[in-house]
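Fold this sequence, please.
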Amino acid sequence: MPRPPYLGAAYYPEDWPREQVDDDIGLMLRAGCNVMRLAEFAWSSMEPREGQFEFDWLHEAVDKLGAAGIASILGTPTATPPAWLTSRYPEVLFVNSDGVRHGHGARCHFCPNSPVYREHVTRIVTRMGEEFGADPNVIGWQIDNEVHPVGGPWPTRGCACPVCRERFAERLRARFGSIEALNAAWCLNLWSQAYDSFEQVPAPDRGTWHHPSLLAEWAEFASDSYVAYLHHQAAILHAHTSAPVGTDMMPLIGVDHVKANTTLDVVQYNHYNDETNLHVAAFWFDAMRGIRPGRPFWNTETQTGWNGSVGINGGNKPPGWCRANSWLPIALGGEANLYWLWRQHWAGHEQMHGAVVSSCGRPLSMFDEVREIGDGYVAAADFLGATQPVSSGLGLMFSTRCARANQYLPIAPGLNYVAALQEQVHRPLLEAQLRPDVVYPSSDLSGYHTLVVPLLYCLDEDGLRDRLRAWVEQGGTLVIGPLSDVRDEHLGKFRHAPFGSLEEWAGVYCKYSLASAPHSFELTWLSGGQTFDSAIWADGFELRGAEELALWNDGPLRGLAAATQRVMGRGRVVLLGTVLPSSGWDLLLREFGVKPVATGYGRQIVAPREGDGRRGVVLVDLEGDGFTADLPAAGIDLLTGEARSGSVGVPGFGVQVIEYTA
């Protein structure tokens, strides 16, 4: 069987004549592919009638692929139940917040809590495990496909069928104990919203201005419902296979990625970013690496060029873009890059999506680039398998729970938590070559000397408040704010201060808090005298033992501190009153000893790797303009065999994998 890095695509032999598999395999070998994903939507082909199974076609495909040296990743088909199931058991279908039950013919249109659906899921997944669990050609499993709560925009996502409503009431009862405790925690005397029983608490609908605490609890319930659904399938597969089990996720915040992966073996991720925003994919790859530190993730879907449905979206990509896109996950800690899809569908919903070959079997314009990528994966395999990305010791905290809450409690005008983190924090750190790891409230923080924690409403997630304090007191530098620690666990404000703990930790008194819109405020960074404008939010602080780092220059904040620092134990707390611009993050973190991994500034990936006595770097240009990197040692570009030392030039969308020899 092939070894990583894996290069492949999603393959749907059920949609084509069985004899065509041989032709496809010939093209796959020409393209340098060594793995294919199969079966993720093929329930009706595997179980055409209830309890009657047909696996011969899938065995034939897996066997032929394996004989050619191409491994298989099998998907459980539970995102698309067959018509016999939805017509005979309509109670398995998703019910939206208006009480309308979804119909057949879509994806993810099932109720994750339905005991009837779970029964059918158990049967098909068990049979797949029995058939393929010990197959040496199957190197991994994918549960379902891009699982997330459906049903419209937040807050109306999540199934609202009778089963889910009953389970939601049970969840509230288990958490609060009494309805009086819930009413008190959510301050429901306001507007006479208090409930008399847990059964009265509604599933949110689109026509009501619902309480933010209810919306938060419902979103958490919906997420946990899908997490339990994933874990149910994982337990079945683990009983039949030793191959790694995962679930392919999108950058959706409906399901908590960390919780979803607690019983899984490999983090899987799908993305469709293009030449304008590959840096966003870099954020999510850093986030995927942070879910299971030290273990490589799989990029289970991306495009070779354009994406689309019944029409093309995004258009053609420039030469080299597929190369940069395909090496990006490998540079940032992945061991697989798979395209959606191998052969374009000849009919249906997504027939115009890009692929490796067309529906008539002709190589598409990206085919030669795919072949080059496959050759490069083989050339660098030994080095990549022996090494891992080197952590800079800088962590950037991300919370799915906060991201969800932001959708129905944005606080600041137009605030989008995920977009702000991507564009106004991670992107500047990426461009300054400071290489942050994305960490989570549940992450082990011991390997980090500096943490950046912006816009994190609540510190009461996974015991973070106490762990953060202990981490700082043991020597860490916490760079926190704005809009962090401003809500309790139920999304209510604190009544003793604007923050839960930060005034005490930072040694300040927050005099004023203002939205930085529509008018921004100017601040001066005292070390160096640079001036910046506020973004998103503006807190003005009076000192209570802290040291000023920046001062506000105008408006009601004039003369107040815009950023402060204070020693706490062996570490320090740096409190920010606003989101800094790109140059501000660079200035701040370098001042605290966070060192860049390369000179220069821009959307380029410079990813050092070490392990097994070997070290080197992967260089990827994301902008198409090329860049120059200064190497700390001489080495060999494993993709070309050429020697590299000193300043090396990387062309537009170029890639170099350099192993140091000195």
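The CA atoms of residues 109 and 158 lie 10 Å apart. The first helix runs from residue 20 to 31.
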